[in-house]
Every structure is written in C-alpha cells, then in structure tokens.
User: What shape does this take?
Amino acid sequence: MKWRFTILPKDERVYLKHMIDTSNKAINFVQNINREDFDRDEKLRLAVTHLLQIIGEASRRISPEFRATHSQIPNDLSDRRPQEME
Assistant: This one.
C-alpha cells in the first residue's frame, strides 16, 4: 500500500498575516536608510530581497476567489522585481 500525504491548504488569513509581518520586517530594516547606504550594504540588500521573496511566495498561495473580493491585493507579487516595487 502506497501512502499519500496531502498538504491541506492553509487559511488565507495565515498567508495574509505572513505577508504583513514580513512586510513590516522589511520596512523596519530600511527605515531611515538612504539609497546609497542600502546599495553599499550587501547583507541588508540580501535580507530585504529574501523578505520580498517570502512575500511573493505567500502571495502565490492566495486564491483567485479571495483576490477577486479583495482588490487591494495585487494579482501577482511573485513575478515582480525589487526595482518595480520602488
């Protein structure tokens, strides 16, 4: 007998909270940092990029039905690049 493990979809609220919490972290990282300092700090750039990737992954898991009733959520953050988010 072959076992199948299925991953149950999480409630949309979990992903939304994850997106908000991660966004707040990114904002806190760059708060009071000018662009020149940001560009010079590789660790900061990598950390913010990683946080944006996490937000993109969570956004992919939001259902089309939920998006349809919540138009303030962009259709697909996962394909956006950091320079498009400035």
User: Anything to note?
Assistant: The chain has a mean pLDDT of 80.
